[in-house]
Amino acid sequence: MADEALARAGLHFDELNKIRVLEPEVSQDTTELKEECKDFVDKMGEFQKIVGSFIDMVDKVSKEVEKEKMKAIGSRNLLKSIAKQREAQQQQLQALLAEKKMQSERLRVQYEALQKEEAEQNEFIEQFILQK
């Protein structure tokens, strides 16, 4: 009965028979909530550490990827420039080949003309010798 009178006044006894303003169940719930909050804060701290290390790792990987990407772009550009150089060199060689073919044809025509002239001169010499 005394407990009921105190309870109506807002006073309660806990498990150690100390007078409390809160009901024992509310006090226990508050304590449990406090412990759960502490656990939650601890877990959030661990989560932040994990996320921080993950972000650092992702940053390192992204830097390496960017570095390799630049190497690949450089290699591709080098390959393109080498291909263009070879194409230009091939065109130069084809032009030189065409020039040499024209020179060969010109020399062949000149050779044939000289052979014809030699044959004419040999014939002239033979006729000259026969006339004497």
From TrEMBL:
It is found in: Cell projection, Cilium. It comes from the Eukaryota. Keywords: Cell projection, Coiled coil. Its main location: other. The keyword Transport does not apply. One of its GO terms (cellular component) is centrosome. This is Intraflagellar transport protein 20 homolog. It comes from Lingula anatina (Brachiopod). The gene is LOC106181037.
